[in-house]
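Q: Can someone sanity-check these two? First one:
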Amino acid sequence: GLRLESSLNAVAWYAAAAWRRGADITRGFPGGRDIPCVEMTKTLPPLRLEIDAERAPDVVAARAVTREAFVRHAEADIVDRLRAEGALVVSLVARIDGIVVGHVAFSRVQVCGVNGVLGLGPIAVSPACHRCGVGSRLVEEGLARAREHGAAAVVVLGESGYYTRFGFTTASRFGIRYLGADRHHRHAGAV
């Protein structure tokens, strides 16, 4: 829950916003002046994270999150093109209490002539929600849905420290090379 110390003149405002009054306390300030305060507490319901298939009303919010996460338009433009071409096999949004805070795309790719391979990405999470598990949940749910769609494999161009936790390994183990990638960004994994 939340806890704060309120001056007496703000207690009514906090009480109207569902804060509960606690103990009366006194706070000393520089110069020797004491101010009477009240401890106020509020219990918040847990945030509800939902991962769901992207729907038409989500497109604008998913684009905004992708632009915010990458601080540029390129990745959002890629997703728009993939969506317009019907190439998105899996497109998921993450919502916290109904607000879109993340997006992941899985699209068809050609790798060494193998059919049924999906590319993961881009994945975007609002910076305010970084390190809260939103991206991990998007990847996990996306991989599960990729399996449901019969994906033979999933490839990703990304940070090894992040993607190995989902079972991705270095792409070269499968004879896959992406010439534009450096040694830290070559990962692929079988679904």
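And here is the second, same format, sequence then tokens:
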Amino acid sequence: KKRGLDLLQLLPIGDTGGVKSPYSPISSHALNPIYLSLASLPYLDKAPNYLIKSLQKLKKNNLDKRVDYVKVLEEKEEWLKKYLELFEEKLKNHPEYTLFCQKEGGWLDDYACFKVLRKKYGPVIKNWPKNLKAISNEEKKSLYSEYKALILKEKLIQYLCFDQMHFVHLFADHHTVFLMGDMPYMLSQDS
């Protein structure tokens, strides 16, 4: 607003699964955790020193002239693992998380399970075990049970992403800045 702008156009912010192009999402709903502001996460005031120090190391990526998206995403995901080990219980018991899961229930569980399987078997679905390429509801329930803890982590990451994006939207509205997002034409074939 101070610069006289009242419109901010964003590239697509969907989860690309590590692909650099924002136009190659693996989900039509999920947000890309690369855009998550780690320094703005809840409960950091209760975080141990080692976590804060590792966060400060990550901030050095901001000094690079070019963004190494793969490196940044890998480092953020590694840091988020440590963060969730400490604060998973608080986050999953938060009423806002429960509301998020209810509101986004139509896609969230399937997406989180897909992310877990993608990390285990790789990004190319045609290389996955045959029984995972098209699964029944019964098989889906079995996978949800088998990977329950990992699925929860993926859901929590999406909750944090959506929570921050909601704050950005409120902030922009308060300052009468219109956010306009770009959209990809199609999803990745491995979505």
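A (reply): Looked at the second one. The chain has a mean pLDDT of 92. The helical segments are 49-58, 69-92, 95-103, 108-121, 137-146, 148-174.
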